[in-house]
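User: I'm writing a tutorial on reading structure tokens. Could you give me a worked example: one chain, its sequence, then its tokens, then a sentence or two explaining what the tokens reveal?
Assistant: Sure. Here is the example chain.
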Amino acid sequence: MKITPKEENENIGFQYHVTMEQIRAHQQKTPEEILLWIEEYAAFLQAFQTGEDKERMRLLKNKKTTWD
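And here are its predicted structure tokens:
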């Protein structure tokens, strides 16, 4: 499988804005709370990714550069 951006994502950037309030709230979390969130997020992704998406992520996990 050649790893390339999905056609619907071609030439589309990604932005995510975080407020200072969100940063401060995150800084108040314990390491256990952060790890729990990561585990829950991973389970969510696993449940909703297609087989193609899962394979794409598996291949990208060990890739050193992007879109070679």
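What the tokens reveal: The mean pLDDT is 83. DSSP finds three helices and no strands in the chain.
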